[in-house]
UniProtKB/TrEMBL annotation:
Pfam families assigned: Cyclase
Lineage: Bacteria, Pseudomonadati, Pseudomonadota, Alphaproteobacteria, Rhodobacterales
GO BP annotations listed: L-tryptophan catabolic process to kynurenine
Record protein name field: Cyclase
GO MF, any single term: arylformamidase activity
Domain of life from the UniProt record: Bacteria
């Protein structure tokens, strides 16, 4: 029943999202006070709401979309089912989160995307990247935001590779109010069937 950490480390090696004319806020840790001076140590953090492994609220991509606090905690903890690029859209079958396992990137058709959206998940968790064939690069992000879906992304991809189709997942963002997202800790453990029972890897 080992939990696998799918969260990118927040350190000086962290890649920061950038385009030709835009860059997310840099990540940095600064000393604030020391044990020698104050009797305890505190550091100051500089980061953006979409730094590292994070969750996007609909407000990140859709004007008037819900901000982070609109998502209940129950939508962030529980069974997951996996959507693999190139395979059929899975059945929901009691899952709480839709996990897209595409560490090497992948694509699905618009019809597959629509079927996956129709499953009604409040949260999608993507390891790697997923494109919708024939659509612009940010179509998936914008379509999920318009549908009110929260998106967890920028996971550590290698630990996600061996996860099976079903298991349990925890996606725990900072409890920020009124924001377009937050850094997020993501843990998962896979489920395997053995002698007619369900056990966790």
């Amino acid at each position: 029943m080992t939990w696998i950490d799918l969260t990118r480390p927040l350190d000086r090696h962290l890649a920061i999202y950038a385009e030709a004319d835009y860059r997310d806020p840099p990540f940095a840790v600064h000393p604030w006070c020391s044990i020698a001076d104050q009797g305890y140590a505190v550091q100051r953090l500089d980061l953006g709401t979409q730094t590292g492994t994070h969750i996007d609220a609909p407000a990140h991509m859709h004007p008037g979309g819900a901000t982070l606090e609109a998502l209940p905690p129950d939508a962030l903890i529980g069974p997951y089912v996996t959507l693999w690029p190139g395979q059929d859209v899975p059945q929901r079958a009691g899952a709480v989160l839709l996990f897209v396992n595409a560490p090497d990137g992948g694509a699905i058709s618009r019809a597959q995307f629509d079927r996956a959206l129709d499953l009604g998940f409040a949260v999608w968790v993507i390891a790697g990247s997923l494109q919708v064939q024939g659509e612009e690069p940010l179509f998936l992000h914008r379509a999920l935001a318009r549908a009110g879906v929260f998106l967890v992304e920028d996971l550590a991809e290698d630990p996600a590779r061996p996860l099976p189709d079903r298991g349990e997942m925890i996606a725990a963002p900072l409890r920020l109010i009124g924001t377009s997202g937050a850094p997020c800790r993501v843990l998962a453990r896979g489920m395997v069937a053995e002698r007619g029972q369900s056990d966790y890897l």
